[in-house]
Each structure stands twice: as structure tokens, then as C-alpha cells.
Amino acid sequence: MKKYFVILILFCCIRSEAQTWELVWSDEFDDVSINTGNWTYDIGGNGWGNSELEYYTNRSDNAIIDTGNLLIIAKSESYLGNNYTSARLKTQGLQSFTYGKIEARMKIPVAQGLWPAFWTLGDNISQVGWPQCGEIDILEHISNATYINGTMHWADSKGVHASAGTATAWKNPSQYHVYSIEWDADSIKWFLDGKKYFGGNITNNINSTEELHLPMFIILNLAVGGGWPGNPNGTTPFRDTMFVDYVRVYELTTGIVSNGGGHIPDHFALSQNYPNPFNPTTTVSFDLPKKSFVSLKVFDVIGREVATIVSKEMSAGSYSRQWNAENIPSGVYFYRLQTGSFTETKKLVLLK
Questions:
Q1: How many Å apart are CA 136 and CA 202, to the nearest integer?
Q2: pTM, whole model, 2 decimals?
Q3: Burial call 49-70: b when 16+ CB within 10 Å, e when fewer
Q4: With 187 labelled, which of 33, 159, 164, 213 sits at a CA distance of 20 to 30 A?
Q5: Where is the domain boundary, 220, 252, 284?
């Protein structure tokens, strides 16, 4: 009995799972102009549901790249019936994400009536509206408050707006800080400079939170006025600016590693997904004996591509990736791993 126990312990020491955050998308704002492959604009001055006072534009007066930062600039000026202008940039239709770590390093203005925000909305907002699309506020700050807010919004079982969140004390507002969430199938967690200050439970769509498991796009904006921060006054400096050093998105990866420097597989391999059948998430594992460009995609029975799980260069190792098929209909599908000359395809079954 002791002999087998020792063997088991040794095996566990040799092979273990290591989870790391792997960068999958970012904008470092190092170009000479705003990257239109990443960002588009909301434009208008209709209050945006919050009685805001600004007119959002796509002018360089209100959004520009300067010395490695995106600058979102609020100005006091008469413009198309509004007394203020600003900008609201979004990745809608360009970049969207389901789960992962989303963060930005920013320096935000602190003044009466200003409302900087870093947040997400569901890709399906045009079809279902708000709050049914879901919303995650990674950072909101109002006026001269000495705290920031992190909140999630959704529609409950009756379609009524529901939310959960909290505020955390916030010091040195004139300095850059990193604002982030870690989002997975079980929870959304909020961080300020790497320190967690709130977590929301979304396990198994608890409390009708199913919209918080679907793809979302990112928004950066600087609002002026509104029902929450109140209006600017004589103490509010204009122009005032929100500085964004970078926005980054990571996915949580699981690789098989050893305590002796890393387990390297001796051949390419694609494993059967687990669980199978599944609803709505399943895990696909694969082995890379050398650094390779990896394409892992899902196809329907007539060969149409329905999802890309991986499309990038990866180091040698063993990996696991989770696929969320929440917005895919039930049926038989095929997932295919391609790495250079190696190709392997397996079948999976989605049952809802």
C-alpha cells in the first residue's frame, strides 16, 4: 500500500496543471492615430439614458493618441445643441470577448460633474436591448468621490433590471491605476491595482444571469453631467482629460507542466472534448511537441465554421481550452486542430 502511495505522489509532482493568463488582444495606443480596427464611436447628445449633458463626437478635439496614451477630452463648448463635448469609444462589431481578464491602465479626471467609465455591453444589445444584453462596469468614478465603483447589470426572470456591485476606497487619483476584472463561468471579480475588492456569483446562471455568459464589447468614455454625478459647476476645469495607457484582454490557459522545467509532449495530439455531450461549455485539450501556429476551430455538419477557439502561435506544451456554445443551437459539430502539416478532427455533441 505504501509503495503505490509513493508512486502516486511522485506522479503528481511530475505532472500538474498550471493556470496562467495569456494575452489575446490589446491596444497599447502606440500608433499615431486611433486604430479603427479596434475602436469605433458612439455619436450623439441625447443624454444616453442618464441625463448626460455632453455631445459625443468622433473629432480629434475629443479623442486622440498622444505619447502612448489614448486621450478622451471633455470640453465646454456649444455643439449641436449641447454645451459640452466628449468621446465614447467602443469595440462593438470589431472585438468582443467571453470570459477572461480585462484590464486598463488609466489616469482619470476628478471634478464635479465628470463621469469617466471603462465597461462592457453584450454584443446582442441591438437585438434584445438593455438590460437584457448585460453590462459589466469595470470602473466608474463620479465627480470628486474618494471611491470607485464596480458593478454588473442584467435582467432578472421578469425582465426587470437587476444589479450587484460595490465601491472601494481610492487614493492618489491623479496617478495611473490598473482597473480590471477576472470573468469566468462562475464569477466576475473586480480588482484595483491587482487587489480584489468585489466578486459577483454567476454560476449556472444564478438569479437569471445568463446574459453575463455571452460575448461583450468594451467601452471607454468620459461623460459630463447626468443623474448620478450631477452637473459641472464653477470648480470644474475644462478641458479635462481621461488618459488610457493601454487596454488588454487575457484568457486563462491551462498547460501541463512539471516541477523540473516543463513537460513537453513528443507528438501532436487532439483529445476528445469533455464533457461530451455538453451544455453549454466543454473543454478541448491538445498537445504541441514544438512551437507552432495553432488553429482550433468548430464546424457544423456541412462544413460551415461556427467558432474559432484558438488562432495564434503557441509554445510547446499541453493545453486545454474551454468553448462556450451558449449562443449555438443543439446539434453535432466537429472541432479541428491544424498545426502546420498536422490536422486532426473530432466530433462533439451539444445538447440543450
A1: 12
A2: 0.73
A3: eeebbbbbbbeeebbbbeeebb
A4: 159
A5: 252
Catalytic residue among 52, 54, 103, 140: 140
Say which CATH number the domain at 208 has.
2.60.120.200
The domain spanning residue 344 has which CATH number? 2.60.40.1930
The catalytic position among 52, 54, 103, 135 is 135
What confidence tens digit (pLDDT) does each residue in 21-31 have?
A: 888 899 999 99
What pLDDT, on the 0 to 100 scale, is given for residue 253? 72
Q: Which domain holds residue 41?
A: 18-252
Is 140 one of the catalytic residues?
Answer: yes
Instruction: Report the C-alpha gap between 99 and 298 in whole angstroms.
Output: 18
Torsion of CA 73, 76, 79, 82, to 10 degrees: 110
In this predicted structure, the answer to whether residue 205 has a pLDDT above a threshold of 80 is yes
Q: Where are the alpha helices (DSSP H) in the chain?
A: 2-14, 125-128
Residue that has been written with the C-alpha cell 477576472 in this structure:
182
Q: Is 135 a catalytic residue?
A: yes
